[in-house]
Amino acid sequence: MARGGKEEGEKHIGLLKLAQTLSFLLIFMAGIIIGLAASSHIDRYFNSLPRMFSSSTHLQTIPFSTTPDYSNCTVIHRDCTGNDENDENDDDGGGGGGVKAEKPKVRDCWSIDGFVRPENLTHVMTDDELFWRASMVPVKEEYPYERVPKVAFLFLTRGPLPMLPLWEKFFKGNEKYLSVYVHTPPGYDMNVSRDSPFYDRQIPSQKVEWGSPLLTDAEKRLLANALLDFSNERFVLLSESCVPVYNFSTVYSYLINSAYSFVDSYDEPTRYGRGRYSRKMLPDIKLHHWRKGSQWFEVNRKIAIYIISDSKYYSLFKQFCRPACYPDEHYIPTFLNMFHGSMNANRSVTWVDWSIGGPHPATYAAANITEEFLQSIRKNETDCLYNDEPTSLCFLFARKFSPSALAPLMNLSSTVMGF
Ligand SMILES: *[C@@H]1O[C@H](CO)[C@@H](O)[C@H](O)[C@H]1NC(C)=O
Ligand SMILES: *[C@@H]1O[C@H](CO)[C@@H](O)[C@H](O)[C@H]1NC(C)=O
Ligand SMILES: *[C@@H]1O[C@H](CO)[C@@H](O)[C@H](O)[C@H]1NC(C)=O
Ligand SMILES: *[C@@H]1O[C@H](CO)[C@@H](O)[C@H](O)[C@H]1NC(C)=O
Ligand SMILES: *[C@@H]1O[C@H](CO)[C@@H](O)[C@H](O)[C@H]1NC(C)=O
Ligand SMILES: *[C@@H]1O[C@H](CO)[C@@H](O)[C@H](O)[C@H]1NC(C)=O
Ligand SMILES: *[C@@H]1O[C@H](CO)[C@@H](O)[C@H](O)[C@H]1NC(C)=O
Ligand SMILES: *[C@@H]1O[C@H](CO)[C@@H](O)[C@H](O)[C@H]1NC(C)=O
């Protein structure tokens, strides 16, 4: 008994010592951690203060970081291109030339400018990374900068943009209200002059196959890149054969003031519509959800974010919408019908002529371009609603135009289309 008791006592003392040692160790380690945390806070805090603090003895042991390496930064401060307006103003200030040469180029990854409006579209994000980042929505309602809502023009091209001079004419003087994004085949270099709104506006692009999900991937990639600029409010998808048929101010106010987005979305009870639905999409997508529509959409910021954020329904389309089902004609129309129908006008603002029949719409060349033809697109008697009111102004853009149509369109743009 006694022996047992003694053993018990020794065990207790042993445990007590162990506990003491452990708690000592614990306090010691906590001390180290607190110390480290505090010093790193100090480090961070004082690094952001002017150098005058560096003489303090307490801080002398903390190494100051040398010039930060921003070479891998994808968010670049606006004057890193060297052709910033402010630089020019400095020059105007007189005798600034020498000073400007010495002025270090600022590459501030954390400036609000760079965050809300990435100047340089080059980045190395994967689609997953890009879509996630583009899905960010600010909770705070007021913006800490003067936000002028912009229309993002998203060009999905197979290479050259033959209508470029017409678009440049259309955009001229309205640069503050628009942004341009171009998805080309990878490696394709759009050769445009530095003062063009198309200059340096190619997004990191990937291969596209018409009719395959790669096409819808490219549409989402355009949307996501444009979403990174928080000023972009409306997003129009266009091809190289599209042209504007009204002037910029008309297009801008039509889109910015619209209560609805313009995505073609209708139920077609034929083999070209419902016939492309696959029962393998059950139970998530039912036949009565299924819609068809032109891929050339116009959406607002909210819907753009919903589209790039969806993986559940998109992956069903990728798996089960295979030729003769084309995701670009069904995914967005069906997805919006299922969840955001009340925000959609269910019609397109891009005019197209299917009257010739067959799988492709009519293409208009130089010989077809007349004032009467353009007016018939601009004031089409087709009934359409704008903010629930009937209007004759239904179409802002038109397709398809061959490169030869450029010259007569340029000729008629000021007299007929107002730009
Ligand atoms: C920049 O990226 C390259 C290649 O990805 C890498 O080797 C280098 O360490 C990076 N530099 C910095 C400062 O992060
Ligand atoms: C954008 O960044 C890329 C890669 O960092 C660079 O090659 C290009 O010159 C930059 N463009 C501008 C306008 O700064
Ligand atoms: C780009 O265009 C300019 C002027 O039109 C021309 O001189 C130049 O050779 C072109 N560059 C390329 C790579 O095509
Ligand atoms: C644009 O066109 C409309 C008529 O369609 C006209 O009233 C307006 O003045 C034009 N705006 C500009 C800036 O030319
Ligand atoms: C568009 O269709 C949806 C159904 O998907 C409907 O709820 C909505 O009211 C329609 N929009 C308009 C403007 O009629
Ligand atoms: C365009 O003009 C040509 C030549 O006049 C004509 O043959 C063709 O049918 C016209 N195309 C359309 C779509 O009207
Ligand atoms: C409206 O457009 C259609 C083609 O979408 C065309 O057939 C029709 O003639 C146009 N209406 C008018 C009044 O121009
Ligand atoms: C431009 O318009 C004028 C007169 O309207 C016409 O004589 C000329 O042939 C047109 N040019 C082109 C390239 O269509």
TrEMBL record:
Chief subcellular location: membrane
Lipid bilayer topology: Single-pass type II membrane protein
Biased composition regions of type Acidic residues, renumbered to the chain: 82-93
InterPro entries listed in its UniProt record: BC10-like (IPR044174), Glyco_trans_14 (IPR003406)
Subcellular location: Membrane
Key words, A-Z: Glycoprotein, Glycosyltransferase, Membrane, Transferase, Transmembrane, Transmembrane helix
Membrane-spanning residues: 21-42
Coiled-coil portions: none
Protein name according to UniProt: Uncharacterized protein LOC104739637
Annotated organism of origin: Camelina sativa (False flax)
